[in-house]
Amino acid sequence: MKELLDKLLQRHKYLEPTAEEELRRQVNVLYGAFTGLIGSEKMVLRASKYSALTYIHSEDPRQRLVGLQRLVYESTSYDRIPDDNEVVDILNDLESVLAEMLARQAVEERLEKKIAQRMEEKQQEYVQEIKMQIISEELQDVETPQTKRKLEELKKLDTVQLTESVMERVRPKTLGNIIGQERAVEAMKSKLASVYPQHLLLYGPPGVGKTTAARIILEEAKKMSFTPFKENAPFIETDGTTLRWDSRDMTNPLLGSVHDPIYQGAKRDLADTGIPEPKPGLVTDAHGGILFIDEIGEMDPMLLNKLLKVLEDKKVSFDSAYYDETDPNVPEYIRKLFREGAPADFILVGATTRDAAEINPAIRSRCAEVFFEPLVPQDIEKIVRNAAVQLGVTIEAGVPEQIALYTVEGRKAVNILADAYGVAVYQKKDKDNILLTCEHVKRVAQISRLVPYAVKKASDTPIVGKIFGLGVAGYLGSALEIEAIAFPAHQSGKGYYRFNDTAGSMAKDSMFNAAAVVRQITGKELSDYDVNINFVGGGNIDGPSAGCAITTLLISALMNTPIRQDYAVTGEISVQGKVKPVGGVFEKAYGAKQAGMKGIIIPKENEMDIPEGHLQLDIRSVETIQDILKIMLV
């Protein structure tokens, strides 16, 4: 037994130096790794801070292990020398901590490397931009890398484009493509494409070709040797409803303005020296060409008066409290603008949907006036057929006629056609071989809540106590259905008459004149009857033009005589039975045509207001109420 114990002791003595050496080697490796991780200088500083120098320089690896604990965990609480069983656990813990620290350091080094690389790239780009900026300044180039980048973005956006709009596709390219405006186009051409072109005011409903006609006529005038328009004559278009200006002339896009160098800003070289910069407006852009102002009737009256001054002077004058003519730093072009003004020799073409009486008399006196006519159903049908060809759409018979029921505007008719085409494509799920039918148009009318613009009212059957008068609203006329019925009064001389209150005082005055004429012709006293007169549909009658119709209606009701239902009547009645002239006869004829009338009766003095056979109507002019009765009473 003793021999066995001696062998074990000797074996222990033989193995112990090997384990001690292994521990020392492991501790040295850990020290080396930690030193490489934080550096020698930080190693010494940390050892001093946590009182680990004694442990570090010890020959005992276990004491050195304690010193390493203090360094790694940054704590002085480690002072107990570990036994053999604890050494392995401590080594494993230290290895794990150092491995984590090394991994973190590797990641940080990799990130720092990438950051440094990226910073170097950005620095090179920045240096390059600075170089380009310096070169641009030397070459007086206003573009910077930022502005050039913005320009490239805009150019990129320009390459993206949806399909052209329907109106762009079907817009008339020649005067022959403008439907239903032959007289207006001829008048415009004679006034614009002339040796001495005139300023124009165009009146008419929307969507009938006013803007298009002006643009096309200018293009044709450029090709004529006797006109003053050059090949590069501009056509500047703007909208009178959107023209805004400042009463102090700080901004005025139409006429131009002066930008003071302090509040509004100017070019840098001008702002530094306090020089105001005039900014010419649209009137200067239109110099030598046409300035087209749509909805000119909506312009600010003061701005319109300023425009009249420009039309007379053919230039725009500028003024500024900041301008000093003796300043040697003022550029010559600014000096010229202040001294002579900006040129503004152009032809003004204004378009409006207002009545001529609502337009400023001053502008009317300086302009020739051209009236565009409302489109009749036949014109709308032709526009629809032409648009269908240009759009490549096959339409069913009856589609143009159906679209013409819902609008009197060419633009609106094309939009209805395009909407119906969209419905057809949606239903078929294919854009090829589309047949546009009346059902598609009906579907569009239902969705858009369209109602027939005009309903045929005329009839070949004469009726007692019913007549059609004529009214006008804007540039469109309409047939007014008026009816009356008369009963003997319960007591002679105690009769009454009832009249629409909404018809207005002028219509009631016409009633009094008509009563006198009725008594003169029939010998009947209106006070012996109870009379009811009704303007079907209501509405205010602003004028005496219903006088002849009311007189004829009363005679029919009192005498029980039928009235023709295929003719309409307009005209003022005098107490002597004379037919007096009225306004809007041209437009009223359009209303009669829409209602399906064969003809109209107008005052003799209005005979020159409307051409013979206009709209294929039988136009009869009369002088007295007896002339009307011969035509209307059956």
From TrEMBL:
The active site is at residues 545, 588. Its EC number is 3.4.21.53. Keywords: Hydrolase, Protease, Serine protease. Residues 461-634 form the Lon proteolytic domain. Transmembrane segments: none annotated. InterPro entries: AAA+_ATPase, Lon_proteolytic, Lon_Prtase, Mg_chelatse_chII-like_cat_dom, P-loop_NTPase, Peptidase_S16_AS, Ribosomal_Su5_D2-typ_SF, Ribsml_uS5_D2-typ_fold_subgr. Residues 191-340 form the Sigma-54 factor interaction domain. It catalyses: Hydrolysis of proteins in presence of ATP. One of its GO terms (biological process) is regulation of DNA-templated transcription. It comes from the Bacteria. The keyword Hydrolase applies. One of its GO terms (molecular function) is serine-type endopeptidase activity. Homohexamer. Organized in a ring with a central cavity. Belongs to the peptidase S16 family. This is endopeptidase La. It comes from Megasphaera hutchinsoni.
